Amino acid sequence: MSSFVVHRDGHPATAAELAPLAFAGYAHFTAMQVRGGRVRGLDLHLERLRSASMELFGRALPDDQVRARLRSALLAGPADLSLTATVYSPAGEFTATDLEPSLLVRTGPPASGPRGPLSLAAVEHERVLPAVKHVGEVAKTYFLRQAVARGFDDAAFLDRRGRLSEGSIWNLAFWDGTAVVWPEAEMLGGTTMAIVRRQLDRLGVPQRVQEIRLTDLPELAGAVVMNSWTPGVPVQRIASSSLPEAPSFVRMLHEAYEGEPLSAP
Questions:
Q1: Percent of the chain predicted with pLDDT > 90
Q2: 22-57 in b/e burial notation, b at 16+ Cβ within 10 A?
Q3: Measuring CA to CA, which residue among 251, 244, 225 is closest to residue 165?
Q4: 147 with 122: CB under 8 angstroms?
Q5: Burial (0-12, 13-18, 19+ Cβ within 10 Å), 138
Q6: Is this model's pTM higher than 0.90 or not?
Q7: What is the β-pairing status of strands 207-210 and 180-183?
Q8: Per-residue pLDDT averaged across 197-222, rounded?
Q9: Residue 2 has pLDDT above 80, yes or no
Q10: Where on the phi/psi map is residue 84: left (φ > 0), alpha (ψ -120 to 50), or beta?
C-alpha cells in the first residue's frame, strides 16, 4: 500500500543511517507540495539544491540524479503529498572532509498553510547565509515562540538597518494598490516567491523591489506571507501597524501561482 517514506540516496533509510542526523546542522534543503505526482517550479527547486550544494560543499549532485531520487520517493506515496529534500555530507559536522553529498528525501501529508489573517511581531534578526535554505536555525522557532507568547501569530524579521526582510518560514509581499512590492534586504529567495514573480510578469502585473520599514506600512494597501505551502496568507498587522484587507491582492497571487505548470521529476 502507498505510504510516506524517508529515503537516503534513493533507497529506504535505516535507523542507523538516520541517527547521526539528529544533531546535524550543516545541510540545506528544499520543500515542495506535490499534487497528482507533479510539482510547480521544479527547475527552481533543482537550482536551489545545486547552488546551495556548491556554496556549502563545493560540489553538487547532478540534476538527473536528484530527479531520480525524488521520483523514487514519489512512487512509494500517494499522488498528493509534501516533500522535503535535504542535502548533507556523510562526513558529518565540524570537518572539512570533502565527500559526495547525500540526499535525504522525506514525504508526508499535503499541506496548504494557515487561512489567516496573521499578525506578525517585528524582531531584529539576520540569518547566517540568508540566500541558502539551511537547517538548524534555532532562531526561527525561538522567535516564533516568543511572538506567540506576546499574542502574535508569528514573527517578521528586521535587519540592522530597520528593513523588513522575511518571516520565520515565510517570504513577505506587499501591495500598494497597483503594484506588488517585494522587500529589499538580504533574505532567502523562496521558490514560491520566484514562481509568483515570473507568473506576475507573464500577466503584466507591475512589481518592484524597495526597502520597507515599519514606518512605511501605513502607506501600503495589503500584505501577505508565502512559502511552499501557499502563495499568499493575508497579514493584518505587523508590530503595531494594521494593514487593510486586500482580498483581490491575495486572489491575484493565488491565480498567478496556479498559472505555473505542474511537472513531474
A1: 91
A2: eeeebbbbbbbbbeebebbbbebbbebbbebbeebb
A3: 225
A4: no
A5: exposed
A6: yes
A7: parallel
A8: 98
A9: no
A10: beta
